[in-house]
DNA sequence: CGCATGCTTCGATAAATGTCTATGTTGACG
DNA sequence: CGTCAACATAGACATTTATCGAAGCATGCG
């Protein structure tokens, strides 16, 4: 199916975690960089997805099954739909263990997004 | 002393800059928090807006007039529309000086978003 | 004045998105 | 097996959004 490769995540080199782009403040983004980065921001640009993501990210052990986090005010298929989007954006990974499917955050992507938002140190 | 700091984002506690929410990893977001934070992420969730924002943020002096940044492949009214969205999201401010309108980034909001993406240091 | 320039606002429209119900699929269990 | 529970997929529908061209406001200048 559509198990499209997302974001070429960073290899743990030393600092890495910058799969796509420099800080937003460093230089104007190219069209390609903007396309890539926007996909990640867009994934978090929905309140339901943000709650789901936060629920997974803050859950004990760093992972949660759908049943643990599906109380966000929308139907079960909608939850599933949003989790899929988050997965496609590279923010979450999933794994089935028996009856349940567990979701887990991809920390490197989180870090990469954080870097986008840093203020260029020597600027100003 | 190499920079092995895990996430050199904004200094903790250095400035407020967090008008909305704790880090995404700290605890599950409430509906209200998610609504607020999603608005900011959504503003950066469009490639054109991301390019415009990056162009302003990286422009010399920290500000740019529309004429400096409007070469992003869409019509001028569309540029204006996106700049308005960024302003409504609190990411940019604008000021008219003579013939031109200058846009400038709101650094505290940038920092606040960065904090959302930090990994909780010693959580759990 | 009158006109050119920079930017915003106004409608219109096609595409994308979020949501639902209904249905599939996969695994556990008796 | 048969059935139930947990998730995922499919299709439908309403709303939002990105975009454009045209028109409207300012501001500066001759």
UniProtKB/TrEMBL annotation, chains A, B:
One Pfam family here: HTH_5
Superkingdom: Bacteria
PROSITE patterns per record: HTH_ARSR_2 (PS50987)
Occurrences of domain HTH arsR-type (ranges): 29-124
Classification via Gene3D superfamilies: Winged helix-like DNA-binding domain superfamily/Winged helix DNA-binding domain
Entry-linked SUPFAM superfamilies: Winged helix' DNA-binding domain
Keyword field: DNA-binding, Transcription, Transcription regulation
InterPro entries on file: ArsR-like_HTH, HTH_ArsR_DNA-bd_dom, HTH_MetalResp_TranReg, WH-like_DNA-bd_sf, WH_DNA-bd_sf
Signal peptide positions (record): none
Protein name according to UniProt: Metalloregulator ArsR/SmtB family transcription factor
Organism in which the protein naturally occurs: Streptomyces tricolor
